[in-house]
Write a structure and sequence with these properties.
Largest sheet: 7 strands, mixed
Number of domains: 3
Strand content: 15-25%
Number of strands: 11
Order of helices and strands: HEHHHHEHEEEHEEEEHEEHHH
Low-confidence stretches: 1-5
Radius of gyration: 39 Å
Mean pLDDT: 86
Structural class: alpha+beta
């Protein structure tokens, strides 16, 4: 079955925009051998506006209609459509230090009561499993970066919602990391006092960072519940904090085999962690609750501090980008030098191999001359023998020549490879 060019084509946003405004969607879809509804979804994915229903009929009737312009691709927008699923995403702009934060303030009444990233989040978290240490582990990974226990879930959602809306009030949008970006989530250390490095963490992590844009500077956000070391008592298959043991539990412990141990467990106190998600940058700030419930009165100060730190992050990102470019140039220079050295070594080897092969040909030629002289002398002597004996000798000479093979020096020389031919 043959394929048309359109079936295998990689189509850019610009090309698709021109096509859907030049012909009806059904015509364009037939050319690509897809349905018009599928092509409409592709336009939505690529942020390509398309004519509204009835556009072509009104145009045919002579109405003058305005064509919607193609908007600039936003970070994370797909730039191409490929039948094999491959895509390219619009990158984030290079972060630049804000000259001055002039946020357009919005009234809280203009914003939804629940931020888009918090909407429906409680349902996913309520249905979560729990980690070994009591943290929620939702099955879905495209969620706001919230790592807490079930005990304080409602309060954590309120804090996250309030923080996100405070950013939105000042026109700093809080979103998931756009697709296709090379952003890096900062390591999460939930233990309040730290500890030894762990080879494995059982904590949940999102598939994409939660970020806030201060100007065009992205700042990662994680809200998590800190853990601290508690003395635990093992009872009925569970570890229970000694401070939470009831009189009934204590009586049960006295009548059964049990033991105590120490382990880091969720403390009920929250921490807001902000970080630079750009490669080759190391910047992180934390705001911790000293007592459970300290947030949200600290949240406004967090927003203002991050506004002030946006310039620092932008500079670190630019320094990292420059360092990456320097290292790339150094790597390319090393690769060029390596290829030059490899070419020199190959030339030396080729000359050596060619010389050795030529010497072998010369040696073989000298040996062949002796063999040829032997056969020639034998043939001269055979010419003087009787016919019967002569026939036998000549037949044996023929067999001998066949066994020895070629003794033609020119043929050997023709098969020799010079250094440039290797």
């Amino acid at each position: 079955m043959s394929h048309t060019r359109e079936e295998d084509a990689v189509v850019s946003r610009e090309q698709l925009y021109q096509e859907v405004w030049a012909e009806p969607m059904l015509t364009v879809a037939l050319r690509y051998k897809v349905s018009s509804s599928y092509l409409a979804r592709i336009c939505t994915r690529l942020n390509v506006p398309r004519p509204s229903r009835g556009y072509w009929a009104r145009l045919a009737a002579g109405q003058k209609l305005k064509q919607q312009p193609l908007p600039e691709a936003k970070p994370g927008d797909e730039l191409i459509w490929s039948r094999d699923g491959y895509s390219v995403y619009a990158p984030l702009p290079i972060p630049k230090p804000p000259q001055e934060i002039k946020s357009k303030h919005r009234k809280r009444s203009e914003l939804p009561q629940i931020h888009a990233l918090i909407e429906g989040l409680k349902t996913h978290l309520d249905e979560s499993r729990e980690s070994r240490d009591g943290y929620l582990k939702p099955r879905k990974h495209l969620l706001a970066d919230l790592v807490v226990s079930k005990a304080i879930l409602s309060r954590a959602l309120e804090v996250a919602n309030e923080l996100f809306l405070l950013f939105e009030e000042r026109s700093h949008h809080v979103i998931f990391e756009p697709q296709g970006q090379n952003l890096i989530r900062y390591n999460l250390e939930e233990r309040e006092k730290g500890g030894r490095d762990r080879q494995y963490s059982d904590l949940w992590s999102p598939s994409r960072d939660t970020i806030v844009f201060i100007g065009n500077v992205a700042i990662g956000l994680t809200i998590f519940e800190m853990s601290e070391e508690y003395e635990l008592r093992y009872l009925d298959g569970k570890y229970i904090k000694v401070t939470e043991l009831t009189p009934q539990m204590i009586k049960k412990i006295e009548k059964s085999y049990s033991w105590t141990s120490k382990r880091d467990m969720p403390s009920g106190r929250l921490c807001v962690q902000a970080y630079s998600p750009y490669p080759r940058t190391k910047w992180c700030r934390q705001w911790r609750e000293k007592e459970a419930g300290d947030f949200p009165r600290k949240l406004k100060a967090i927003v203002k501090e991050l506004e002030a730190e946006a310039a620092t992050i932008a500079k670190l990102a630019e320094d990292g980008r420059r360092q990456a470019e320097i290292e790339k140039q150094q790597w390319e220079a090393r690769q060029l030098e390596w290829r030059r050295e490899e070419a020199i070594q190959k030339r030396i080897k080729d000359e050596k191999d060619s010389r050795e092969e030529l010497f072998r040909i010369i040696t073989a030629w000298a040996k062949a001359k002796k063999i040829e002289a032997f056969f020639s002398d034998a043939e001269r002597q055979a010419a003087e023998l009787s016919d019967d004996k002569k026939s036998i000798i000549l037949e044996r000479l023929k067999l001998g020549r066949e066994m020895v093979g070629c003794t033609d020096a020119l043929q050997w020389l023709e098969s020799w490879k010079t250094p440039d031919e290797r």
